[in-house]
């Protein structure tokens, strides 16, 4: 599995990858783990984001990696099923990051870059409340 990163995206990520202590997580935002912002959902949406972390980050959920044009990015192993063997990360005409696969086509059309490289404490899970079941 390979992720081709276009030069425009490489330019955005270079400031992080020049620092050897930082790692890039290609995070499948599915409600699993410390870095997920959403609760588990039954919808068909696939949400990915790029998270920049330092050497003190908890990487428990990131048990695999994907090779990229810029080295290896860590990933939740099971989230590979949402990627193709050949993938591409590029900037749209609006400046957002877009992830596509050779066979699948559009995988995620707006990947944010979340910089947690200065964080020294574990992130707090900030899930949005959902409808509560009445007693």
What does this structure look like?
- Strands 5-4-1-6-7-8 form a six-stranded mixed beta sheet.
- With 135 residues, it is mainly β.
- The C terminus is likely disordered.
- It starts with a strand and ends in a 20-residue tail after the last strand.
- It is globular and about 40 Å long.
How many strand segments? 9
The structural domain count equals 1
- Measured by DSSP, the beta-strand proportion falls in 25-35%
Looking at CATH, the homologous superfamily is HesB-like domain
DSSP helical segment count: 1
**Which radius of gyration do the C-alpha atoms yield?**
15 Å
CATH architecture: Sandwich
Structural class: mainly beta
Distance from N terminus to C terminus (CA atoms, Å) equals: 48 Å
> What is the H/E string?
EHEEEEEEEE
Biggest sheet strand line-up? 5-4-1-6-7-8
Low-confidence runs (pLDDT<50, min 5 residues)? 125-135
CATH class: Mainly Beta
Throw out a few tags for this protein.
135 residues, mainly beta, Hypothetical Protein Aq_1857, Chain: A, three-stranded mixed sheet, 9 strands, 8% helix, globular, disordered C terminus, ATAP_core_dom
Would you spell out the secondary-structure blueprint of this structure?
Layout: E1 2-5, H1 7-17, E2 23-28, E3 48-53, E4 64-68, E5 71-75, E6 86-91, E7 97-101, E8 105-111, E9 113-115
């Amino acid at each position: 599995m390979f992720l081709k990163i276009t030069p425009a995206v490489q330019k955005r990520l270079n400031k992080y990858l020049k620092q050897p202590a930082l790692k890039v997580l290609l995070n499948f935002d599915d409600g699993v783990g410390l870095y997920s912002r959403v609760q588990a959902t039954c919808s068909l949406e696939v949400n990915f984001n790029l998270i920049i972390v330092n050497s003190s980050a908890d990487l428990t959920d990131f048990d695999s990696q994907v090779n990229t044009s810029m080295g290896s990015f860590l990933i939740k192993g099971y989230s590979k099923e949402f990627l193709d063997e050949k993938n591409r990360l590029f900037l749209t005409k609006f400046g957002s990051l877009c992830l596509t696969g050779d066979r699948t086509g559009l995988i995620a059309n707006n990947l944010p870059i979340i910089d947690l490289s200065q964080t020294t404490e574990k992130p707090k899970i900030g899930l949005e409340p959902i409808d509560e079941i009445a007693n």
